[in-house]
Specification:
The chain is mainly beta and 359 residues long. It is 10% helix and 28% strand. The protein has five helices and 15 strands. The strands form three sheets. Strands 1, 4, 5, 6, 7 and 8 form a six-stranded antiparallel beta sheet that branches. Strands 2-3-13-12-9-14 form a six-stranded antiparallel barrel. The radius of gyration is 25 Å and the shape is globular.
C-alpha cells in the first residue's frame, strides 16, 4: 500500500519562535518613493481595543457596492510624538552606517516657542526652579552633550549622506491607561526632497511635536508592526497545531510521534516541539485608516471604557481589521511597503460606542 500523504502542520516561516527583545516592534526598512514633499513615514500609538463600524462600500466591482457593510476595527490612541534629533546615514561597503546626529539643546525652542519636553535639565532642577516639591519620575530621556552643536549639523550637511531619518520619542505621560511613563525613543524615516532639504526640514522641527494627522491621511494604507500576545511555554499541539496521536499510543498523545531518524544523531530544528508561544514581532500589511481624530475629539470611548484599557483621552486612529497584541501594547506604523493599486474612498457612516463589558 502506498504511503499516505498529509500536509505539513505548522509554518517554519517565522522560526525560531523566540520572545521579542522589547514590547514594541522594530522597523528595519522604510519604503522608497519619488515624492517631492518632505513628510514623516512612521508613527506610534497604543492599542485601546476593538469595536465595529458601518462603512459604505465604494468599490464598484463589489457585490455590496453602494451598501453599508459592517466592519471590525481597532482603535489606537496616538498622542503627539516629540522630535528629538536628526540622524544621517552614509553608504559603506558594509551597508548603511551612521554618519552623525544633531540633537536638541536645553536652550533650544520648538516651533511654537516652547521649551522642549526632554532637555538636559533634570526633573529635580526644574521642580526647584518652579518652586514645586521634588517628585519621583518613572523615567526620562538623558540629555546629549555630543551631537547637539552647530558644528555637528554642519558636518551632516557637508557629508555624503544616503539617507536622513528622525529620532522621535513617545509621550506615555499623556496616556492615562499606561502604567509606564518612560518615553520610548525610536527612529522614523523621511521621504521627499534631497538630503540637505530633509536636514533643514528636520532642524526646524527639533524640540517640537508631530501628530498622526501630520503623517497620515484618511484612507491611507499602512503597515502595523507589533508584538503579539504572549502565551508562555506551550506544547506542540497548541504551538504548531499538530494532530493528537492515536488513543492506542502507549505513552502520550499530545506530542510528536517521531523526532527524526537514528542516523542524524541529533534532533533537527524543523521538528515541531514545545516552546515559547506568542510575544513575537509580527507585521500586518496594508491596513486602511478609517478615521484620524482632531484635537479635543475623544468621542470613541464606549460606555464603561475599553476592556483592560479604559478611556481614550488623546488623538486616536480607527484602523480597519485586527492588529497584533493585547490592549495597552504599543504599535508602530509605517507607510505600506507593498501598497495595493486600488484605494477605495472611505465613507464612514456609524461608529459603535456601545458597552463592551458584557461581550
Amino acid at each position: 500500500m502506498a504511503d499516505r500523504s498529509k500536509p505539513r502542520r505548522g509554518s517554519m516561516g517565522f522560526s525560531p519562535r523566540k520572545r521579542a527583545i522589547r514590547p514594541y516592534g522594530r522597523i528595519t526598512s522604510w519604503p522608497e518613493t519619488d515624492a517631492s514633499e518632505i513628510r514623516v513615514q512612521g508613527f506610534a500609538g497604543w492599542k485601546a481595543g476593538m469595536t465595529h463600524v458601518l462603512i459604505r462600500d465604494t468599490n464598484p466591482h463589489s457585490t455590496s457596492a453602494g451598501q453599508e457593510v459592517r466592519k471590525a476595527v481597532t482603535v489606537v490612541e496616538v498622542p503627539p510624538m516629540s522630535v528629538l534629533a536628526v540622524r544621517g546615514y552614509r553608504m559603506t561597503p558594509y551597508g548603511m552606517q551612521t554618519s552623525g546626529e544633531y540633537w536638541i539643546n536645553a536652550s533650544d525652542e520648538g516651533p511654537q516657542g516652547l521649551m522642549p519636553r526632554f532637555a538636559n535639565q533634570t526633573r529635580g532642577e526644574r521642580d526647584a526652579e518652579e518652586g514645586r516639591k521634588p517628585e519621583k519620575r518613572a523615567g526620562r530621556i538623558p540629555g546629549r552633550s555630543n551631537g547637539s552643536s552647530e558644528a555637528a549639523f554642519e558636518a551632516l550637511v557637508n557629508s555624503d549622506l544616503c539617507d536622513v531619518r528622525l529620532i522621535v520619542a513617545t509621550q506615555p505621560a499623556m496616556v492615562k491607561s499606561i502604567n509606564s511613563k518612560t518615553p520610548e525613543i525610536m527612529e522614523v524615516g523621511l521621504v521627499g526632497g534631497d538630503n540637505n532639504e530633509k536636514l533643514m526640514w528636520a532642524k526646524e522641527r527639533l524640540g517640537g511635536t508631530i501628530t498622526a494627522s501630520d503623517v497620515y491621511d484618511i484612507g491611507t494604507e499602512i503597515d502595523v508592526i507589533g508584538v503579539t500576545k504572549g502565551k508562555g511555554w506551550q506544547g506542540s499541539i497548541k504551538r504548531w497545531g499538530i494532530k493528537l496521536l492515536s488513543h492506542k499510543n502507549s505513552k502520550r498523545r499530545r506530542q510528536g510521534g517521531n523526532m527524526g531518524d537514528f542516523g542524524t544523531g541529533y534532533v533537527r530544528k524543523t521538528i515541531r516541539q514545545a516552546g515559547q508561544t506568542g510575544y513575537h514581532q509580527r507585521t500586518e500589511m496594508n491596513k486602511r485608516i478609517l478615521r484620524i481624530s482632531q484635537p479635543n475629539e475623544s468621542d470613541i470611548t464606549p460606555e464603561g471604557g475599553f476592556l483592560h484599557y479604559g478611556e481614550v483621552s488623546n488623538d486616536y486612529m480607527i484602523i480597519e481589521g485586527s492588529l497584533p497584541g493585547p490592549a495597552k501594547r504599543m504599535l508602530r506604523f509605517r507607510d505600506a511597503i507593498r501598497p495595493r493599486a486600488s484605494k477605495p474612498d472611505v465613507d464612514l457612516t456609524y461608529v459603535s460606542t456601545s458597552s463592551k463589558q458584557g461581550v
